[in-house]
Design brief:
alpha/beta; 5-stranded parallel sheet; globular; binds 2-deoxy-2-amino glucitol-6-phosphate; carbohydrate derivative binding; glutamine-fructose-6-phosphate transaminase (isomerizing) activity; glutamine amidotransferase; aminotransferase; repeat
């Protein structure tokens, strides 16, 4: 049938979509470039972002995790404060809003009911909204004031992969364009840096055997697994845990490295897998300290670091990319480890139990 043709030689859509990520990043660069090769975003959208006193990112699941990264990008590059909220909470627990908030809805499908409920509520209050989505003409796109497209191509697997990286790439472009128009040119050549990201992603997609091996070694028989990181790595850990949960049914949680000692470390037993991310220079030593703490209590640590920050004990080293863009790259091992863990445990990778691709009920 048609869906098999689309899958080509791949056994699963998830694997195909993970592999498509370097291409998607290159396509996004192209789609957001003007004739001179400069990154560009509709002036209306840039003005809406620039004139807001606070941005509210609202999303669910993986898109929420992309939003957490987006907050860092917009705050650090463009200098505008950003809050990130889970849509289902925001709906009935709305924070006190400033005078000129701008809402950004991030949604692969553009159909998520929880996000739509918030969109309807904030439009009623007279606020402006931008939807970042993969689906032109989707409900969230139609009902918002502005839309930015992901250009990731159809995502079929329930577990989102290329939409997450596309969301972060588009948010980085938005942050960069706004930063430049606010005179915050910090010599970041985003086109070049995203190109480096695409190449690094390719290296990771060519390292599948390694991730298959890690999944086999750490996750074949385990009941649970923890992901730890600090800063951007923490957010990627949350995404890694969600990927693993939804397709392999292993109980997985992402934690901020520094929070471990406030409770979670009690869960560490002999052999508990702890996947630690180390791509951020300012917290490299402290996350490694956390790894030592869990190892001393019997954990089986798997450190994934970035070239330049790597140490002897690391299990896998990803190629170096700009420090703000690391999630685009460090998430790929998370996706592939989850994929192979699900495969080894005989799970239905593309259609995990109890889940739907787009959640159209609140
Ligand atoms: C991701 O792997 C999940 N299937 C899920 O969390 C998803 O990201 C969430 O339901 C949001 O969907 P959306 O991006 O289409 O709004």
């Amino acid at each position: 049938d048609a869906s098999d043709i689309e899958k080509g030689t791949y056994p699963h859509y998830m694997l195909k979509e993970t592999d498509e990520q370097p291409l998607v990043i290159r396509k996004i660069i192209q789609k957001y470039q003007d004739e001179e090769g400069n990154l560009t975003i509709d002036q209306e959208i840039v003005d809406a972002v620039k004139s807001s006193d606070r941005i509210y990112i609202v999303a669910c699941g993986t898109s929420y995790h992309a939003g957490l990264v987006g907050k860092q990008l917009i705050e650090r590059m463009a200098g505008i404060p950003v809050e990130v909220h889970v849509a289902s909470e925001f709906g009935y627990n709305m924070p006190l809003l400033p005078e000129k908030p701008l809402f950004i809805f991030i949604s692969q499908s553009g159909e998520t009911a929880d996000s739509r409920a918030v969109l309807v509520a904030v439009k009623e209050l007279g606020h402006k909204a931008l939807t970042i989505t993969n689906v032109p003409g989707s409900t969230l796109s139609r009902e918002a004031d502005y839309t930015l497209l992901l250009h990731a191509g159809p995502e079929i697997a329930v577990a989102s992969t290329k939409a997450y990286t596309a969301q972060i790439a588009v948010l980085s472009i938005l942050a960069d364009v706004v930063a430049k128009t606010r005179g915050r040119a910090d010599n970041l050549n985003l086109v070049k840096e995203l190109g480096i990201v695409a190449n690094a992603m390719e290296v990771l997609c060519d390292s599948k055997e390694e991730f298959d091996f890690i999944a086999r070694e750490y996750l074949s028989f385990t009941r649970n697994c923890f992901f730890i990181g600090r800063g951007l790595d923490y957010y990627v850990g949350l995404e890694g845990a969600l990927k693993l949960k939804e397709i392999s049914y292993i109980q997985a949680e992402g934690f901020a490295g520094g929070e471990l000692k406030h409770g979670t470390i009690a869960l560490i037993e002999e052999g508990t897998p702890v996947i630690a991310l180390a791509t951020q220079e300012n917290v490299n030593l402290s996350i490694r300290g956390n790894v030592k703490e869990v190892s001393a209590r019997g954990a089986n640590p798997c450190i994934i670091s970035m070239k330049g920050l790597d140490m002897e004990e690391d299990r896998f080293v990803i190629p170096a990319v700009h420090e703000l863009l690391t999630p685009l790259v460090s998430v790929v091992p998370m996706q592939l480890i989850a994929y192979y863990a699900a495969l080894h445990r005989d799970c239905d990778v593309d259609k995990p139990r109890n889940l739907a691709k787009s959640v159209t009920v609140e």
